[in-house]
Amino acid sequence: MTAGARFILALDQGTTSSRSILFDRAGAPVAAAQREFTQHFPQPGWVEHDPQEIWSTQLATVGEVLHKAGAAMAEVAAIGITNQRETCVLWERATGRPVAPAIVWQDRRTAGQCEALRGQEPAVERRTGLRLDPYFSATKLSWLLEHVPHARARAERGDLAFGTIDSWLIYQLSAQRAHVTDVTNASRTLLLDLETARWSEPMLELFNIPPACLPRLIASSQSAREAPQAQIGGRQVPITGVIGDQQAALFGQACFTRGTAKNTYGTGCFVLMNTGATPTYSSHRLVSTIGWQRAGARTYALEGSVFMAGAVVQWLRDGLGFIASAAEIEALAASVPDSAGVYFVPAFTGLGAPHWDPNARGSISGLTRGVTRAHLARAALEGIAFQSRDVLDAMTRDAGQPLLELRVDGGASANNLLMQWQADLLGVPVVRPAVTETTALGAAYLAGLGAGFWQSEEEVASHWRVDRRFEPERSRAWAAEQQHGWSQAVQRTRQQ
Q: I need a labelling partner for 396 at 20 to 30 A (CA). Which of 54, 159, 257, 410 fits?
């Protein structure tokens, strides 16, 4: 570690924005910078990003955050990267230029391919821990190889490189020297053997993926000597932490013991539970994934993914002009005591866990003449909590143990109405930490552990502090009645 290093720099590349955050030795954010980038929807169910815009916005935030903190790169001990996971990029090795737009994790264009392979799903689940769904990266890459002119032949020759967003950023940061991905991101591709943490030859054959285009696999936390090196501002800084965003939040929430769980309320909702040193395979339509790998050991997790959460509020703001800013929705929703029987199921791009229905579409049901903007706003927030409860109910059955509390983070965790509603539905405390930037924090912690900035997970856990604890206030009978109405609304979206 460089003498005089005072910070860890976390690059948090998300679905709608790129951010950089500097953390000090106490795990506290010192400064942050953020830039949104364009969302592209070329066809219904398709979602794309411009990889070059992702790179340019991410790099711009690095300069901005250093300026805000009055810091220099010489004071940065290491870099941690966390990223939207299943979004994939295909680029030229020689030039570093993408050959097509990035296909985003929300994209559903490969639903037909997944259906055609449905008979292979049991074998896919046994090897990868994942379900056969357009959400994951393999069919996205397969689509690119088939639809971009000459892509398959070029990939087979090794001229093209495939990667999730972590790979793309590292390739650019390292001046096109390092083509790598960490095992957590790789575990979301449908191409990794979950138990060995190696690329799976049977899965590569199933999806017709040439091995020559794949990145080298690395741990989530590495020493500065082993790590890829970023070239920024004429300085070389090791990238000692790399981890998918939801696993990063699990680590940032200090969920280091088996059975601890967190929910990140971002563009989607992502519930993860630490399941220890061996995979727990789901019987309730969740997925098993690698939580992180460091110090020669892997930690696994169960996960349930909700595709539309904070994106619902964004749609109300940008798509309908329903509100002027996302922050307005809490006060609007709180102005009425309930949703007047309205259920908002935001299946804009299908339903994720535990339903896994790519053909479901969003619906608002229970409308009467007495329903107002406030009722719709409340129903939108309640829909986020209902979806999360569906996942957690399945997760506790798989894990064979009750949920004692839920740690929460992400932008929408600042919404007190939503957090209280979540606690009431679950019947357990919902705990919001003092630092809710846990995705970036998890990447920073892994980078800092690799670089020797922090010495142990125990030291990291000592930094975790509670901001607010939301205790359940409603009866379990009330929660069951609410959930029954929600289940009926969900069923209607699947019958369209």
A: 410
